[in-house]
Structures are given as structure tokens and as C-alpha cells.
Amino acid sequence: MAQKKLALPLLILLTAAGLSACSGSGSGADQGHFRTIAQESVSKAEYLPGDLPIPAGAGITFTEGKLVDGKKSSMLVYETEQSMAELGTTYQKYVNDKKLKRGTQIVDRNNIIINGKVSGAYSYSIIGSSSDSKPGGAEIIVTWIVN
């Protein structure tokens, strides 16, 4: 069941990566419920922006940073008890404050899809869904690619 739950967000992630975009640092972290990725001292997150906001107490389940053929890419997956509304507001503010190129921005009570792309420069996606296994919780997948 866990594999099926992860398969849909990964499929959405791969689709969004084709549409994606980004660069920069965030400001949602100044809210009391959020910290930055740098404050969390997450290993293998070397290509994520250090000021990317993540909820305080988030359970980070996966991080990976790669440099392949000159492209820096990173992925972060975490679980949180924060509401989709708060997560969506924080990430929309981050994208707007950083003046990141915007693509899709969909935020509702069960899902988040925020992504953008600047051809030849960067792409990003922040995708989340409500957790079936933890009512009131959410799983968030962040990808960041610098070309």
C-alpha cells in the first residue's frame, strides 16, 4: 500500500518536472511553524536552496542531491502534520517572494502542486498530498534542478 501511495506523487513529480522551474531562497521560514532546510542540517540536500521552508518537526524520509552532466538536482520528501492550507500559503509566499518563474499553482485542502521552469536555467516542483495513513498529515515532495 505504501508503494502505491508513493507511486502517484512520484508520477505527478515526474510529470511536473517536465513543466517545472526555480532558484533562490524562501521566506516562509520566518513563520513560527517553519524552519529552513539549512536549519534542519539535512544530509544530501546540497542542491536545495538553504532557505527552503519546511515545517518544524517534519519527518524527512528521503533526500538526494546529484550532479549529472553538469545538472544539479535534488529531491526532498517529508511528512508533516501541517495543514495543506498552511503548507500551500507558505510555499506560494516563498515562490512569490523569491520571484521564481511560476508555472502551475494548485492548492486545495488535499493537494499542493506548485512548479515552474526557466529553460536552460532551473526548474522546481513542490507537490503534496494528504496522508491516508496519518489522518491530518501530509507528504511533500520537493524537486529542484539547476541546468
Number of H- or I-type helical stretches: 3
Multimerization state: single chain
Overall structural class, as computed from helix and strand content, comes to alpha+beta
* Terminus-to-terminus distance: 35 Å
Elements, N to C (H/E): HEHEEEHEEEE
Instruction: Specify Rg, calculated over alpha carbons.
Output: 14 Å
Low-confidence stretches: 1-31
- Report the principal-axis shape: globular
Tell me what portion of residues adopts beta-strand conformation: 35-45%
Helical coverage, percent range: 10-25%
* Secondary structure tally: strands: 8
Mean pLDDT: 78
Main sheet characteristics: 6 strands, antiparallel
Biggest β-sheet: strands ordered side by side in the sheet: 3-4-8-7-6-5
